[in-house]
Amino acid sequence: MGSVDLQSVTKTYGATRALDEVTLTIAEGEFFGLLGPSGCGKTTLLRAIAGFVTPDSGRILMDGQPVERVPVNRRDIGLMFQNYALFPHLNVRENLGFGLSVRHRPKAEIAARVEELLRLVRLEGFGERKPRELSGGQQQRVALARALATNPRVLLLDEPLGALDKNLREEMQIELKQIQRELGITTIFVTHDQEEALTLSDRIAIMRAGRVEQIGAPRAIYERPATVFAANFLGAANLFTGMVEAREGGLTRVRLEDGSLVTTRDEAAPGRQVTLAVRPEKMQVAAPGEGPNRLSGTVSHEVFTGTAVILRMDFQGRAISVFAQNDGGPLPRAGEALTAAFDPANAVILTDPAG
């Protein structure tokens, strides 16, 4: 088992509400990401689940049982932090067996479990080394194995890969996901890294100012953000504000502030002011001409990323990003005219207007 339910969890520090009526459910075996900027409350929420923070109000349940007043050492959780917190004077085996030894498990049981953990994280033969003799990735594996040593029902990870360089972080994302799937353990992790959240999570909660802004599967939130904040924080988004003119033939017609006409498959009542979000990769370089969902401007600059070129276009005084695959074909250069187009299915009406 390992389900976690949070019901209207609130925590205040002075005049600041670190958690503001947070309600969410994490299913058994789920890999759940808490994503948001610094100060949004995600680490406070993780610490409340762990037992390091006591909520002012609300309930935290594990497998249906309230735990908000249960001490940390009785919650049956595994913890892993960004700095790993390995004991420098102990070797790998001793680090892995520490939690079991303080629980007074038999030595034979501890030894067997340590060997099992070494195999799990692919560190056979490293048991006698001290943490300083390991690479960053190896230390991360030891920290993960130690968090799993007592077979906890829930694993909590606070920025688990933040100390690694980009290439190693990407490699460890795959390994972490494989280990979590193999064990089937409920895992909740905090990150501010959008790509990490998309890669690891079964579901993501985007947090903002102590509240949950949106919850859903990574692809669902990315493709269908609900708010301006969610659209901008998880990826990049071009935002267009306008007035709904009509709903015809399965399309909603929106007149933008500059007079341009665009359409979306999302529904909205005529006369309503709306904000549309379109991801840069859903905007294509198009031939000049009239028609819906064709926006023209001037390329202000180009951003070369290797696999793609992101063209920044000045559209009526607003910067728009257009993603172009680096396939060797010609692309407009800075100072040249550019027309971008998008499919109505890729324009999402957000619930809040852009400021």
Automatic annotation (TrEMBL):
It comes from the Bacteria. One of its GO terms (molecular function) is ATP hydrolysis activity. Pfam families: ABC_tran, TOBE_2. InterPro entries: AAA+_ATPase (IPR003593), ABC_SmlMolc_Importer (IPR050093), ABC_transporter-like_ATP-bd (IPR003439), ABC_transporter-like_CS (IPR017871), Mo/tungstate-bd_C_term_dom (IPR008995), NA-bd_OB-fold (IPR012340), P-loop_NTPase (IPR027417), PotA-like (IPR005893). The keyword Repeat does not apply. PROSITE patterns: ABC_TRANSPORTER_1, ABC_TRANSPORTER_2. Belongs to the ABC transporter superfamily. Spermidine/putrescine importer (TC 3.A.1.11.1) family. This is Spermidine/putrescine import ATP-binding protein PotA. The lineage of its organism: Bacteria, Pseudomonadati, Pseudomonadota, Alphaproteobacteria, Rhodobacterales.
